[in-house]
Design goal:
This protein has 355 residues and is α+β, with helices and mostly antiparallel strands. The protein contains ten helices and nine strands. A five-stranded antiparallel beta sheet has the order 1-2-3-4-9.
Length: 355
């Protein structure tokens, strides 16, 4: 999630745990602790693929944060003037303010390395968008009550409780979407293919579904307010014929570890050279993909890896009114929104008649 939300979460947790004893200090220190894991954004690994795949890495590890929280609890117990606060209470304070950050990040699409340094894929079970105004507002109201009114526990506790209810609603909404998708997947024989169900930007009412079927990937939008309207599925090419070339590269393998199999491959002309580009299909929206990477250039019929990979602008026909159309689709199943309208047509493999 964004840094403001993480700071608000840390503040709410801090006030709930020690607000009665420390007052506003518990809220303010909690905000700092809640933001701490995101300091890794200032680390530059000198390579685009490394930067994207190392983010939410060791600073988000439950092992690292457990060690840090324990150290801070021992120091606070020894040095703080509040001698009546037990070591266990200090430990709960620091631990909860720190570890709720990566646990919330796990509920977004990006992927969080909570088990670092174990060699496992980043964890992600997306139920909220990376920026969710309603979730953030619930926390900020509780924190604001604490800072303005002086009761540093009650406001944060209520804000934290309501935000957890919102997350529970999002989890239930995801279950409803997956239930509505089941007949569509069964009809197409896609029950076992990799799929990703995630909310569209800034809400939990309209969900984007991406599923990978070998050389193609499919997209569908499913809204909680769709009623009996069946989901519409659009099909796109993903350049799978280039996947072996990408997987032969160290940086291609790293991207596959980070986002596979939700990757699209293409050859683009960049600075007069044929360049192999990989795009993360998870992050963004068809026509608005946020992360594409130049991995190699073609030299004498062979792909030569770039020593330093680069982020490149996604090839799209993005329209400025796309978010407005998403908002209309969220509230009305009859407001047809075709993602194929926002991408270059050479990527489109099948367009439903409704489009």
């Amino acid at each position: 999630m964004d840094t403001l939300t993480q700071a608000a979460l840390g503040a709410a947790v801090g006030g709930t745990v020690l607000g009665r004893r420390l007052g506003r200090k518990a809220v303010l220190i909690g905000a700092v602790l809640g933001s701490l894991p995101d300091l890794d954004v200032f680390l530059d690994y000198g390579d685009a693929v490394a930067n994207i795949t190392e983010h939410r890495g060791f600073t988000h590890s439950l092992f690292v944060l457990t060690g840090l929280g324990t150290l801070l609890a021992l120091l606070a117990r020894r040095l703080a003037t509040a001698r009546d606060i037990s070591l266990g209470r200090w430990w709960a304070y620091f631990m909860l303010c720190l570890v709720t950050h990566p646990l919330l990040d796990v509920l977004t699409t990006y992927g969080t390395q909570i088990w670092w340094p174990l060699a496992v894929r980043p964890s992600a079970w997306p139920v909220v968008f990376i920026i969710d105004p309603l979730y953030t507002l619930l926390l900020l109201v509780g924190v604001g009550i604490a800072l303005i009114g002086g009761n540093a526990q009650r406001g944060p506790a209520w804000g934290l409780s309501l935000s957890c209810v919102y997350l529970l609603f999002a989890m239930l909404a995801k279950g409803v979407v997956e239930h509505r998708l089941a007949p569509v997947l069964a009809e197409r024989g896609l029950e076992q293919v990799p799929r990703l169900v995630q909310p569209t930007p800034f809400n939990t009412l309209l969900w984007r579904v991406t599923f990978i079927d070998g050389e193609r990937h499919h997209e569908s939008l499913v809204g909680l307010l769709d009623g009996g309207t069946p989901p519409m599925v659009e099909t796109f090419r993903r350049g799978a014929e280039l996947e072996p070339a990408a997987m032969a590269l160290e940086k291609g393998q790293r991207l596959d570890w980070f986002a596979g199999p939700f990757l699209r491959y293409e050859v683009r002309e960049i600075e007069g050279r044929e360049t192999l580009v990989a795009t993360d299909l998870r992050l963004g929206f068809p026509g608005f993909y946020a992360f594409s990477y130049a991995l190699a250039i073609r030299e004498e019929e062979a792909w030569q890896p770039l020593q330093v990979t680069e982020m490149v602008t996604a090839d799209s026909r993005a329209q400025r009114d796309a978010l407005g159309k998403l908002g209309a689709r969220m509230l009305d199943a009859q407001a047809t929104l075709c993602t194929s309208h926002f991408v270059s047509q050479h990527w489109v493999a099948n367009v439903p008649s409704a489009c």
